[in-house]
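Sequence in, structure out. Go.
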Amino acid sequence: MNPSPRDPLRILLVGYSQPGALELSYKAALSRIPGVQADLFSIDAGEGRPANPSLVSRALHRLRAPGQNGVIRKRLEATLKAARQAPDCVVVFKGMVFSRESLEKCAQASPKTIWVNLNPDDATNIEAKGSSNADVLGSLSFYDLYVTWSRSLAVRLKDGGCRRVERIPFGYDAEVHRPPAGGENKTPTGVSFVGTWDRERESALAAVADMDLRVFGGNWKRVKAGSPLRSRIHDEALHGDRFAREIHSSLVSINLLRPQNRDSHNMRTFEIPAVGGLMLTQASAELPEFLAPGEACLTFETPREMRERIEQVLRNPGDFVRVRERGLRMISSHSYDARAAQLVGCLAELVSTRRAEPGGA
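Output:
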């Protein structure tokens, strides 16, 4: 089956819709593929949580979550029942709010639909808050297809009961992650980090807190009292043009991999070079698949090495212009348009098989 205007592949994405959400990048990329109709079932109505929630707001969120999740589950089931044309595929992003029972009910409401989970985190690690939970882990075998970014995680998912697993790496949004207009006329200065706080990141960045460092992202109010990082923190998350301008205007942009990404890559692996930034990232086994270390990006193993690399750039910034430029060229083939095409290939195959089954047409 090849999607065409006469026989469109109808895809319903289920996930978040606040600025910067991966779901929005996929929706835009899928919509640019001829013969694909992509819609988004928003579980948050575009209203994301604040970047730096207070203790009270976090507690209220935990108290309200069970009731809110129940409403979302019923709303998705009702949406599928009311659809004039059932989607060929439902792609759930992570699925933290959906129990196995609620997914089964939704499947009954749309029995010919292919169910897919596209998970940007580690579904097997329920000890990491925000990465997974018992519902995600208990639903692994429900899906016809499970999509992950990591080769090693793909193996664990298969062992965990997934029917079929495909590896589709992260990428960059061609409409969002691009060098800012006129940015090439500004002289880059300082060091930037854009990402959510955690203790490990705080410890790593403390090694360069005495430099001209700018830190953006959520939850950085949790930095220890008296930490030299406090004066470096900008209490906001960056998306779109603001992200592009900050990265492009930095001499160096740091990328810190979380433990689940340590042998692989993360979103920033693509987003930083895509906006024309000079990326300094933790080395990983999969990085050379996308960028040539030392030629299209800089790498480090320890906080001390991170500091040494930054000092090299600060001493001779002109020596690293070509690294920045090559990073932009090498990353160009790794947009979400390419990832969406890979996903559609998998979905089209599954839908064609389902339609060929007795009573599947």
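Check: The chain has two domains: 9-171+336-356, 183-333. The first helix runs from residue 22 to 31.
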